[in-house]
Design brief:
The chain contains eleven helices and 14 strands. The chain has helices at 42-52, 69-75, 90-100, 121-127, 196-202, 212-225, 253-263, 279-286, 290-306, 315-320, 339-349; strands at residues 15-19, 29-34, 57-60, 79-84, 105-110, 113-117, 144-150, 160-166, 169-175, 192-195, 230-240, 266-268, 271-273, 333-335. The longest helix has 17 residues, at 290-306. The two termini are 39 Å apart.
Amino acid sequence: MSTTPTIFNEKVTPYTVVGGRQRDSSAGLSAVVLNRKGHYQRRAFFQELEKSGFDKIISIESCAVHYDIEELSNRFPFVHFILPEKEINTGEQINLAAFEINSPLFYVLRSDLKIIAGGTAKRMAERLTENGEGNTKAGYKRLCTVPVIMNSRYETMPTLVAPVTHKRKMQTVFLEPKNEGFLTLYPFDGIGIYDRERFILTGGFDETLKSEHWQFMDFGFRAHLWGEEIALSLQLKLFCDGIIPPENYTAEGSYSRFYLKNLAPVLRGDSARLPLYLFPYFLLKSKEDVITAWEEFNISRNWVEKNKLRWKCDAGAVAGLWDKSSDTENPHHEKTITDAVNIMQSQELSC
């Protein structure tokens, strides 16, 4: 991984790999399985992935004792079972997977999902090329392509995420996937087909953010701020056989870093900066002591300076990407972030 840019977080948790015989496949797409708690038909799941012809299949396990890994490894020798030394959240799991694969694309799935539309791995990869189906030599369209997800009643789930402002407050709304290519702020539950090179160049998920919600928000905002696209493909469909846990919107420590990295930077010309004059405001809102607040502010300020030429727009422009959609006026499902967080976000978005 010597070619990995320094902005990609290389602090990967130590892990052990079990199994993983090389497959004779050149689809251009690998599968990454994030295992949800519960008892699922893992054998049938891996059999379906095998039939789809993925280049590589990686299963990220928990750090608990696994009594079925040896049996599964013998039955499915092409599956790479990754056993981290400690529990890691979704973003860290996806980062880890990006180290392990070589395919240009990787499809992040959950253990309670089933692919019901999209075709073989090769077919899915071909559809995501710049110049249309079948042109595998072309570049890929976007950083991440998200699928339609259907519940156990085969109802379409509202999985597209949009940031909206209402009375100077930011909220996130969940929309039903209706239109091809519709943007989403981030891949719902981490699920989607990622362009590995773009993922690494964008920095992956920030492992310092322990809240998965703010980790997703940080990844999504950064991607759109830097000119990347995360969008829907109606040709990709998954069936969900479990219950997706609700996101935790609590404005704890992870929010401060998200705010400083994404909402506070000011774009001037072709570069961004985190002005010093914002520190008193941040100190007041963070409710930290001066030394702790300054350390946090300075870390983010140095990060912004290091990547200042990556910005293509500001946070207000990102929020405006969804303004033209009539769907945001009548969302299927809405989650409101706490008022304190909304106020901080909306004030910077109005700059």
